[in-house]
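Example 3.
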Amino acid sequence: MSKSSEITVEAHDLRRTFQTKNQNPVVALDGIDLQVMEGEIFGVLGPNGAGKTTTIRILSTLLLPTGGWARVKGFDVATEPEKVRRVINMASGAEKAGYDFITAKKNLWFFSQLYGIPSDIAEKRINELSEMLGLTKYLDRKFYALSTGYRQRATIARAFINEPKVIFLDEPTIGLDVMTALSIREFMRAQAKEKGRTIILATHNMSEAESICDEVAIIDRGKIIANGTPDSLKRSLGAPPLVMEIQPAPKTLDMLSSIDGVRGFTSSVDEERGLAMVQVVVNDESGAEQAVEAMRKSGYNVLTSWRRSATIEEVFVSLVGKGFKEREETEE
Ligand SMILES: Nc1ncnc2c1ncn2[C@@H]1O[C@H](COP(=O)(O)OP(=O)(O)O)[C@@H](O)[C@H]1O
Ligand SMILES: [Mg+2]
């Protein structure tokens, strides 16, 4: 299906503040602008607490914005929610979306009836969706007897039962095994590319965003800090990032902060190999050399270091100075 140039989901200066009893109000969305084209998989990517779920809930009419506006297929989410609901569906990886004591198939059937879908069509759709999601063999199992992965496949099937034009998926592959996550991603791609559905995918999984999104908005503390195709985002970095394997695991990486040619860094510990990986976003060769030197001077053993092409996480690092993990730690 060729990509049409129609805007399907649009938001302007979208805001959401939550009032809390004893603390200051929480600004979950601090003015978001979005334009999503028909048939696109649009990723809303950011660390935990960034505002992804709030965005999805507002766009899918589950929550009202406290400022700005958003439209889905031309309908305003705040003033025409019932019209929006006719063309959308949503699913979340965090919900447990089914009735335990009926089969997977009866669960899907139940939801198809809520949409008033005629029996023969419902039956056909359930079979087709199940086939595409590898769920067919498990349809007759009671929902509670399904593994997490198959329950999630059923949850995803449910989100497509009404043939929605626009589907909102909030962390649909969170906590799943690799094979299930891959099947669900393949399914999302097929639904967008073959059926022309628009998918808004909230995720904190950077490789997921890179692998299936046509367009990504990187969100941090309620603001979009970058957006574009995964390739254009990665290209925007210019110089390839530096990766170092070091021992022992560092307590701090403050020595990198003072280097001019270093824009930011993140690290992870490889328990099995007993070392730490440090990813550094640099401006140029000199920044990379100084970063390696600074680690050595601070007493770390730099086992290996190399430059490689950028990932989306490093786009975040270049803008925020740190990675998702460090951002989440400072949110506490
Ligand atoms: N109902 C609520 N009441 C108060 N604060 C909330 C509520 N929902 C979300 N928040 C806060 O809004 C921010 C964004 O949350 P959320 O949209 O769930 O982020 P994400 O999905 O990216 O992890 C967080 O700081 C979160 O604690
Ligand atoms: Mg969330």
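The pocket of adenosine-5'-diphosphate (ligand 1) is lined by residues 18, 20, 26, 28, 46, 48-54 (CB under 6 Å). The chain has a mean pLDDT of 95.
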